[in-house]
Amino acid sequence: MALSGLDIFKRLPKTNCKDCGFPTCLAFAMQLAAGKVELEKCPHVSEEAKAELAEASQPPILKVEVGAGEEQFKVGEETVMFRHERTFVNPNAFAITIDDDMDDVDERVKKIESLKYERVGQILKIDAICVRNKSNNRDKFIKVSEKVSSLTKKPLIFVSSDVETLKVIGDKLKEKKPLLHGADTASVDEFINIGKSTGCPIVVRGKSFTEIMEVTEKMRNAGIKNLVIDIGSRNLKEDFYNQIALRAAAIKKKNRLLGYPTIVFPCEMTDNPLKEALIASIFVAKYGSIIVLANPSPQNIYPLLVYRQNIYTDPRQPMQVEEKVYEIGSPNEDSPVLITTNFSLTYFIISGEVENSKVPSWLLVMNVEGQSVLTAWAAGKFVPEEIAKFIKRSGIENKVKHRSLVIPGYVAQLQGELEDELGNEWKVVVGPREAGEVPRFLREYVSS
């Protein structure tokens, strides 16, 4: 049973030292009871109190780790229903299926491995491979599973209705900590043994919340908490409802038996690749922890990866790109020099329009803590004095022989003062106010 804030407060040091980031021990206790902070934030809590508060200090949705090594991913640890309340914590994991009756396993693994992109300094990629027992042949499934395991370091998910098959795979590949799908009311005792012998995370499958709770309770009582819930009917409407109900039960009702990450299968809801991507996008926000897809086409995967990246950024900290001089289209010493801020959206829009212009250019991106041009100007971060300092340290003066700088049209008022700050060594040109006008502006600028 979850402890109240006062129950937790009684077990804390009561020093009000503020080392946890809260003004009082009582305030910290209330946040801990609400699942919005971890017990480790208090550096002075005793070992005895840690043991007593272990359950209360866990987030409403437990953390589950899948895989081993550098490619391991974790899901769960969520504490809110909506991103704007605080932030979502661990991004969804995307998995691509490989069925044991496929002839092109090697090529499919290579294709999955190649789905990797860099955006805003982050690597976007597929997180796991889901091997499904479509042939209903135990030996074939085990053979394909071992083959896939030998071809990739990505975490693996094994789906089979044959418990004995999963036991064999779990024993053979337990060092890789694959996710085994899945335990139900009929097989829970066998999966308890598998979980204890292999340490692998396990999917709990049920047709209703009652069935799920029956299985998770038995698992918890046996000391197994590394669980993922599959309550999917493979129907979008019902699965969408179930995801929301599970999140609400865990976070609002503090139901520990339902407080686990989930797995959803858009790949089993439609045969249409575009519909699969659309369905998957719904579960990125509401609230699939692991999303299993059948279609590895880059045109469908990339938008999902970008969408996930945007959803799982902290809304309190804007996405930023690195402060530096960006080369667009192989610029030379005569190419135009433009400047903007390191707010990622601004950068992507401006760099895209510069690229569309077909005019090779230098784009100076200045660190203003991820704020847009106008916001940074209003906050005193994108102002002549700071811009001049950035120009000097950027090294752009060693890359071009001219001294002409294009600033955003929305801060045209900086033109004169910025030239003064630069010692009149640079001519400051006011660019367009709207990004869509950049291509025409640059073409006319270089021809003048």
Quick gist of this model?
By secondary structure, this protein is an alpha/beta fold.
Fold and architecture overview:
The chain has 448 residues and is of the alpha/beta class. It has three domains: 5-57, 3-methyladenine DNA Glycosylase II, Chain A, domain 3 (Orthogonal Bundle), CATH 1.10.15; 64-311, TIM Barrel, CATH 3.20.20; 324-447, 3-Layer(aba) Sandwich (Rossmann fold). Helix content is 39%, strand content 16%. The protein is built from 16 helices and 17 strands. The strands form four sheets. Strands 10-9-8-7-6-3-12-11 form an eight-stranded parallel sheet. A five-stranded mixed sheet has the order 13-15-14-16-17, sandwiched between helices. Strands 1-2 form a two-stranded antiparallel ribbon. Helix 6 (163-172) links the parallel strand 7 and strand 8. Helix 6 (163-172) packs parallel to helix 7 (188-198). The mean pLDDT is 92.
Overall spatial form: globular
**How many domains make up the coordinates?**
3
- Poorly predicted runs are none
Q: Indicate the proportion of strand residues.
A: 15-25%
Largest sheet: 8 strands, parallel
Q: How would you write the strand order of the largest sheet?
A: 10-9-8-7-6-3-12-11
State the CATH topology of the largest domain: TIM Barrel
Number of helices: 16
- Under the CATH scheme, which class of the largest domain? Alpha Beta
Q: How big is the Rg?
A: 27 Å
Q: What CATH architecture of the largest domain would you give?
A: Alpha-Beta Barrel
Oligomer state of the chains in this structure: single chain
Helix content: 25-40%
Q: Give the name of the CATH superfamily of the largest domain.
A: Dihydropteroate synthase-like
Number of DSSP-assigned strands: 17
**Helix-strand makeup class:** alpha/beta
Distance separating the two termini: 75 Å
Mean pLDDT: 92
